[in-house]
Design a protein that fits this description.
This protein is of the alpha/beta class. It contains 18 helices and 15 strands. The chain is about 35% helix and about 15% strand. The longest helix has 13 residues.
Length: about 400
């Protein structure tokens, strides 16, 4: 394949002397977070960016479709892993030992140490939760695997100091660029509402689910049917936001087939790659589970109603844990409309504080980090705090 990166195809180039940036997208969730970084590199004629999907471990067709849809050069993994790059942006540790160049390791979701406890089948009671910051993840043969390990919060740095002190010099507490973009979008709420078809006194209910059998959609197969049946369509507009992993693993066709009756009843869905943040800004009510989307909603002050029981194995002190202890709950099968009208308040400030310890600063810190590793002076232009794009709804 012809590549704009490297010397082999240099004679085809129109712009010479560019520094190379490789974006490694292991799955769609990581890819959407990496896309938040790319505006920080825009308008710089000194850079050439290319994408790749690390393989062969657990590669979904949806990931390849997502990457191709960005319109960038996509290098096959067999090609990309032979190259040398001036900067590598990675959404996970997958494949980073097989490429040459300084790596910026970026978390997806709410951050490295923001998740529920994960206990493998058969693990004993003394099993410690995997936080993605332990030495098994961040070290290889005693060497730190990334030149910059991006953290969202000082609390994550404290975890890193405890579980993998050798990686601390590479840590960069940058805050949460996904949350910063969400906050920058709040002033445009009415624009997002119009794009989602919400007008007048109608209220927007966003129903969100992470993946896994314990998620809202996994444990309640009739989740959307129940919401639609209880909420009169002349008063409520229902929009769903499903985790990209659901779409990737089960397939676009299957998700639409499962929800065919719901589409006929008025349900609309935002795409898996973008649209969920705009929907949260536009929402009057959010129904969600322990996933990071629910915590992001609470962080901007959206009213959140949680599904499921309060016994979910959450990491103590994480945003999901704080939200779970504060937000009211709805068990499908119990009346819903009354809960939306008479809901208890959630301390959005407490959740927001746990989502980022550098509010509004992520873009500046991340750009400074990337240009340091590129060994280039930062552009003089201001760092953009980009609102998310207007949402589009998937065809019913």
């Amino acid at each position: 394949m012809r590549s704009p990166i490297g010397e082999q195809d240099r004679h085809w180039s129109t712009r010479l002397g560019c520094k190379s940036v490789l974006v490694m997208v292991p799955h769609m969730v990581a890819g959407t977070r990496l896309l938040d970084l790319l505006p920080l590199l825009e308008a710089d004629h000194r850079l050439q960016v290319a994408f790749t999907v690390p393989e062969p471990w657990e590669s979904w067709q949806a990931t390849h479709d997502f990457v191709r849809a960005q319109g960038a050069v996509v290098l096959p993994w067999a090609h990309a892993r032979r190259g040398s790059y001036d900067l590598v942006l990675a959404g996970s540790t997958r494949g980073i030992d097989e490429v040459t160049g300084p790596v910026v390791l970026v978390p997806h979701g709410g951050g490295f140490a923001q998740y529920r406890r994960w206990r493998p089948p058969g693990a004993g009671g003394d099993h410690q939760p995997v936080l993605n910051l332990d030495a098994g993840k961040l070290l290889r043969e005693g060497r730190v695997r990334a030149e910059a390990i991006v953290l969202t919060h000082d609390d994550e740095l404290a975890v890193l100091k405890e579980v993998c002190p050798r990686a601390v010099p590479a840590a960069v507490v940058a805050g949460n660029i996904a949350f910063d973009r969400l906050c920058a979008s709040v002033p445009f709420r009415e624009h997002y509402r119009r794009a989602l078809g919400v007008a007048g006194e109608r209220e927007l209910v966003v129903v969100t689910s992470t993946w896994s059998e314990r998620s809202a959609f996994g444990s309640h197969h009739d989740l959307f049917e129940r919401v639609l049946a209880e909420l009169p369509p002349e008063r409520y507009r229902v929009v769903g936001a499903l985790h990209p992993q659901i779409w990737s693993h089960h397939g676009d066709w299957q998700v639409r087939a499962w929800l065919a009756d719901c589409f006929r009843a008025g349900l609309r869905l935002v795409p898996p790659d973008e649209g969920w943040r705009a929907a949260l800004v536009a929402a009057d009510h959010v129904i969600g589970d322990y996933g990071s989307v629910s915590t992001y909603a609470a962080g901007i002050g959206a009213p959140v109603l949680l599904t499921g029981s309060a016994e979910a194995p959450l990491l103590a002190g994480s945003p999901a844990d704080v939200l779970a202890r504060q937000a009211p709950r709805w068990r499908p099968g119990t009346p819903l409309a009354g809960l939306l009208t008479d809901r208890a308040a959630t301390d959005s400030g407490a959740v927001r504080h746990l989502l980022t310890s550098r509010p509004g600063q992520a873009g500046a810190i991340l750009r400074r980090t990337m240009y340091r590793l590129l060994d280039l002076a930062e552009p003089a232009r201001a760092v953009p705090a980009s609102p998310v794009p207007l949402p589009r709804l998937l065809p019913s």
